[in-house]
Amino acid sequence: MSVHVSQSAHKIQLWRRLGSVQYRDSSLLQRQHLSSFSSKADRNDDLVTLEASPDTGVATLRMHRSPANSLSMEMMQSISGAIRKAESDRKIQSLILTSSLPSGIFSAGLELTELYQPDLARLPKFWESFQQLYLDLYGSRLSTIASIGGPAPAAGCMLSLSCDYRIMTDNPKCTIGLNESQLGIVAPPWLAQQYIDVIGNRNAELALLLGTLFTPQQALTVGLVDELVCSGDSSIDEMAQRKAAEFIRIPPKARVAAKELTRGTQIAKLSGNREEDTEFFCSFVTTDTVQKTLGSYLEMLAKRKK
Ligand SMILES: CC/C=C\C/C=C\C/C=C\C/C=C/C(=O)SCCNC(=O)CCNC(=O)[C@H](O)C(C)(C)COP(=O)(O)OP(=O)(O)OC[C@H]1O[C@@H](n2cnc3c(N)ncnc32)[C@H](O)[C@@H]1OP(=O)(O)O
């Protein structure tokens, strides 16, 4: 086992060094005209806002990476940083995760330019930031509530799955689910497991195969969200606050211990397997087949917009 781990660590080092090497597949070097998908690194400083209220014990983490709260490496690090900041304040017991984008989009999942024709030096760090975000949110001592006012596909769904409670706007245009298979990729095992834990094995199996995006009503039926709020009703924030207060009434030690009961094993599993997970991701996502499918998906998104 230890030999396997050290070989794996060696491969990750190789990935990092490969950063200076250009991506080799010539068909992929001919960049298509996907002008709206061209950004990579962004500034860390204005992607999220954390509002802590020591009086109520509730902090609200608002995501506002325009246009769709897609998760670039910096975005994931900013969310992780805000979670840790809220946790370091002993007066805070609950965290509401929401979007403050005017479009209402909760999160469009991983930033696709991080996956398509990736920067090879950045790729392992990008994935490690995704793992870290899962560990920080899923393993938080805080009670966490996702207030989902808009679409939450793929890693956007992961953000909500990592919370303790999910409230969603009842607008059929706002869909949620792990749609990775539609992009020619697959959710990592730790994310698939969250899905199985929340919606059950058969529902998860079908939804993962088909890349299903559930409407809010369907999501409520399968248990992917816990509560719906009428579309256009501003009370989603109030409902989240009310739920947070309900969680806060439970003695913190008991609440945290209860959470550990259901999440501890999965958290320990990924914590002990991060390098292999990163290695697998880097190898998988850079294959020609995956890159071609991602390219087509990006084109489809751009055309749909036109
Ligand atoms: C061990 C593991 C092994 C292997 C694992 C391998 C891979 C990793 C696997 C899984 C983890 C998770 C993966 C992901 O999260 S992949 C991302 C999936 N996301 C999507 O499919 C969503 C795509 N977007 C949409 O469907 C729509 O944009 C959305 C419904 C969110 C909003 O629709 P709306 O009509 O309101 O707006 P649009 O005009 O479509 O978009 C606005 C704006 O935002 C840009 N955009 C949208 N999504 C993304 C994205 N994910 N990344 C980057 N940019 C995005 C879109 O281009 C528009 O931009 P602009 O033209 O500049 O306005």
TrEMBL record:
Intracellular or extracellular location(s): Mitochondrion matrix
A molecular function GO annotation: delta(3)-delta(2)-enoyl-CoA isomerase activity
GO biological process, one term: fatty acid beta-oxidation
Catalytic reaction list: (3Z)-dodecenoyl-CoA = (2E)-dodecenoyl-CoA; (3Z)-decenoyl-CoA = (2E)-decenoyl-CoA; (3Z)-octenoyl-CoA = (2E)-octenoyl-CoA; (2E)-tetradecenoyl-CoA = (3Z)-tetradecenoyl-CoA
Pathway: Lipid metabolism; fatty acid beta-oxidation
Domain of life, per lineage: Eukaryota
Pfam families named among the record's database cross-references: ECH_1 (PF00378)
Record-level GO cellular component terms: mitochondrial matrix
Keywords recorded for this protein, A-Z: Acetylation, Fatty acid metabolism, Isomerase, Lipid metabolism, Mitochondrion, Transit peptide
Coiled coil: none
Subunit structure: Homotrimer.
Family annotation (PANTHER family): ENOYL-COA DELTA ISOMERASE 1, MITOCHONDRIAL, ENOYL-COA HYDRATASE-RELATED
Biological role stated in the UniProt entry: Key enzyme of fatty acid beta-oxidation. Able to isomerize both 3-cis (3Z) and 3-trans (3E) double bonds into the 2-trans (2E) form in a range of enoyl-CoA species, with a preference for (3Z)-enoyl-CoAs over (3E)-enoyl-CoAs. The catalytic efficiency of this enzyme is not affected by the fatty acyl chain length.
Designated name of the protein: Enoyl-CoA delta isomerase 1, mitochondrial
Record lineage: Eukaryota, Sar, Stramenopiles, Ochrophyta, Bacillariophyta
